[in-house]
Model the fold of this input.
Amino acid sequence: MAAAATLIRNQLIASALSNHLSLPSEAFLGVNEGDDIKSLYINILKAAGKGLPHKQNDEVMKWIDFAGGFPVDSSACFEALIGLNQDLTQKTVFLGTGITPSAADVVVFAAIHSSVIGLPISERKTLTHVMRWMDYIQHKEKMVDLFEKISVEKPAFKPFLQSTKAVNKVEVDSNASKPLSAKNTEKTEAEQIKKKSDDGKKKVTEKESIQEKKKPAQTEAAEKDKDLSVSLLNIQVGLIRKAWKHPSADSLLVEEIDIGEAKLRQVVSGLAKFCTPEELTNRLVVLITNVKPGKLRDVASEGLVLCASNEDHTVVEPLLPPAGAKIGERVSFLGFDGKPEDVLNPKKKQLEKITPNLFTDDKGVATFKGVPFMTSGGPCTSSIPKASIK
Done:
């Protein structure tokens, strides 16, 4: 890499790190040509008065080495991005299984931005996880104020519609016309009219009887479909304002979530093994807000944060609304426009009937029967593809 290009890259990294650590944007404009990324990173940390936990230091330095050695040759560059894409398959961000970007994410984003933005669309499509990660970082860290925005092509979705086939029923008239005999021809016109009238009344009576028999079965099927509709759930976008550990349960966290109401909504979630309170603070989530309020280990809970989980439940993360989603807006599902229940009735087990149909597709998009969780900013997603959602 030419000296001038290296200097420009380092200046961009310094600006991005300064932004990440809330330092003045002009703090490190005077980057020297001989500075390497490690020295730059350490100096910026010192200026911010912050350090990194020792257990994560090696991991951060690994990614700083990756950024510093990122190739400029187009073929080698693409190979490096393919490796990065593989690393991001099961991750939202680089460190741990959380969702909060670290300095490692910021440094690598700044280092590879110019290479990624120059890729043709055909190559971008093969880097699904890299593009997802870059889109997340550029909005989460407000990188669009420093770098040209990377446009990410959103996947097109076709809603899952259950097809029905009309069944034609052929009614057989036992009194169908028969060839007239000589005797029949002698019947008076009055007798023929009476017979037609009696046959007509009989048909009407039989039809009404069949319809009455069908009503209970049709009503039962309609009630069953109603109980399985995602429209019964009031799923809203929320922002976690504060999170802390449950006072008497190691596996639980307590969150105060803003859904646009006058009062923050308190929710208890089983996320302590997968996320820290710090990682959840100021994070967008989607939650069911019409579940019956209750207590979990003596702490009140007024909602259910929806999370994606892999098959063996070793990786769990809250669903992520897109950056453009509005706090408090209701998540919609194309083709399912019913009104949500005021409060779900636990005795009807509506939630238990609906959640088996909630899952992420192979691109990590959250769906109900294949229909995406949609917001004003786009679909809700997860870094875990083909995951169950509860």
Notes: The first helix runs from residue 3 to 20. The chain has a mean pLDDT of 81. The two ends are 48 Å apart (CA to CA).
